[in-house]
Every structure is written in C-alpha cells, then in structure tokens.
Amino acid sequence: MGILHEDVVIIRQSEKAGEPSVITINCPDKTGLGCDLCRIILFFGLSIVKGDVSTDGKWCYLVFWVVGKSETRWNLLKSRLVDACPSCFSASGISFYRSELQPPKPSDVFLLTFCCHDRRGLLHDVTRVLCELELTIKKVKISTTPDGKVMDMFFITDTRELLHTNERRNETVDYLKAVLEDAMISCEIEKVGPEITASSQGSLFLPSEITEDTFGLEMSNENSSGLLTSSRVSITLDNSLSPAHTLVQILCHDHKGLLYDIMRTLKEYNIQISYGRFSIKQRRNCEIDLFIVQSDGKKLVDPSKQRSLTARLQLELQRPLRVTLVSRGPDTELLVANPVELSGKGRPLVFHDITLALKMLNTGIFLAGIRRHIIREREWEVYRVLLDEGDGLSVPKNKIEEGIWKMLMGWE
What we know:
Mean pLDDT: 86
Order of helices and strands: EEEHEEHEEEHEEHEHEEHEEHEEHEEH
Strand content: 35-45%
Shape: globular
Radius of gyration: 22 Å
Strand order of the largest sheet: 2-3-5-4-14-15-13-12
Oligomer: single chain
Structural class: alpha+beta
Number of helices: 9
Largest sheet: 8 strands, antiparallel
C-alpha cells in the first residue's frame, strides 16, 4: 500500500474563530503511535476536542479536531507529526511502509548556562523561549544569589538536532537576549559528554526528604481530603458487543492531554486500538469508546488484567500529575510529579505551565530542579521548586496548589 509523502499528514485550518482545525493522519501503524501523535499535539499547545481512530493492524487512519493557540506553527506541527509516523522510503515519489530496524539514536545533551538579574516571571520567560525553539529541558538547576542575581543551568536536547551548529546556538542566545534584555549578564551553550549527563541525573531513588506517600500515588475509592483530582471517572470493559474486540467505554471530565493520558496508558499495557471515537459533550464531559485487542490480537478476557487496566486508567485520568506543597522548616517547596513513558519521554510543557502559574500568582522562585526517580517501580519526573517567600507568601498555600493544578489540567 502506498501513499504520497505529503498526504501522510493533512491539516485543514479552521476558517472561523472558535471552530476546530482538522488533522488527518494516514500512515503505517505501530503500537503506541497514537500516544506519540497526541504527545506532539499537546506539545504544540493544542487540545483535541474530537477524534476518530481506525486501523487494521498494518495501516491506520486518524482524524483529530483540535483547538488552541492562534499562533500555532502549522507547518512545523505537520513536520513533527510526519516524523513520528513509522519510517518510509521513497521510490518515484511514492512512500511505502518500512518497519523500524533499530531504535533511534539518543539525542545529544547540551548545557545552557546563563546569569542574569532576577525579576518576577523570569524563569517562565526563559522556559517559554526554549519551548518555542523546540529545546527540550531534561534537567534544570536554578539558584538565586543574595545580591539578586540568578544562575540557571538547563540540560537540554534539540528536537531539530542542530544545536551543535553555531547558527542554532546564536539563534538561541539571541532569542533569550530579546526576552531578558538588559537583565542578561552572560549566556553560554556547550555540548556535554555522557559522563556529565549521567552524573547530572543523580540517584534514581527518592531523596530522604521526600517519601512515596508525599505524592499520594494510590487512589482510594474515597479521595483523601484536599487531594487534587479530576472529577469522577467511569470505565467499563465489555466483551459482549464485538466477537473480536474488547470495548472500553470511558466517561470523564476533560483536561489538558486527556487523550494523551489514555494512549500512554494503553501503550504501557501493550494494548492496540482497532477503532476509537472521542468527543467532548456539554460542560466538558467526555465520552470515549475504544475497541481494543492485546498484542496477540485477542480480546482482553482475563479478569485480573481487566482489573489492572481499569484501575490504572482510573488513576491516570483522575490524577495524571501529582501536585503538593510541603514545608521545609521556614520554607515552602512545591513538588510536581508525572510518570515517564516507556520510551523515556516525560509529559510536555509541565515546567512551562508550573512557571506560568507561579508568574500569574506573583510568586517568585528561589530554587528549582528537575530529576527522575523510581517510585513504586515506575519512573517519575519530579519537579522541585523552592518558593521565594520574601516577607512571607502573599498567596495562601492552598491557592498556589490549586492554581498550579488548574494550569496543568488546562482549567485556568
């Protein structure tokens, strides 16, 4: 089966304000493709309001209706979506399916170091620039000196794989200078070796000051008091409606990255979607119908596997991220954690949203860091932000926690 390369992804932009744009993807299938595509759409700041997915196990056809920013770079989005589709080779202008022969090479890691005068919202402004340039933050260390200067260290990778060139580095520095203006004192970008990258990651185990219970990773039938969750989620598995597929029906409240959270969970369980439909009804209530099979092509009939999948979906849709504020003596630390995909990728734009929420709350950042840890046999990306309280927090702690949660969930 062949298809013109430019027809792998077709984007029809909305003609009227408020109407969704339509993204159509027609390409070879692979397990987890839906997760990869939804992650890219989420990275570009778009929300999926309706979706249709169908596949015969070899070729798939997906349609997403999306809404979001007016300044969306559609050509770049199309390029990234095409890159995520299984590899093809061209013959006389026609592209044919070619299965992946080897995993992709890990991206080079670069250290961006800059020093500048501190001000409210500075960290978000820098993070926004890096996101716009498609520079992925792998780790960050932020510190503030007593004289009001900030030393920032970002370990980053480049989606475009061009940061080794002087042109790309100069572009990055120029963008930062345009945003920081006279506040910038110095800025340097250098490639780091594997030994520096490895040592910068630190231990995968949680530091002693954070416990597994800090994040409330398990969900009881009755939510704990003060626990930040989405509205109640209903998940039903039915094997009676299809001779070849298990039907998964999900009713829940919409949030930013909802379809991504569903897809990454199914990817983790090695579940394949043969047909699916997603739509948002009144008051942002969502209805999702998915006809699924296991990796062996059979229905999901094992009761223990059904319970396991249902429980994980319930947890991930109610609490796709964990947000909490903890006291460190006289200081207050914000902790945000999200599960890492099996591919090693974390949820996009988390640090961007954290810094944006704090900027809107007029709350400063004294120290910040990102590390990955193993918590209950799963890898998590943990964001730690020590708040700059000055003469004391002007915003109540529960309002900070709630504001960050709403920003991450797209309810701001």
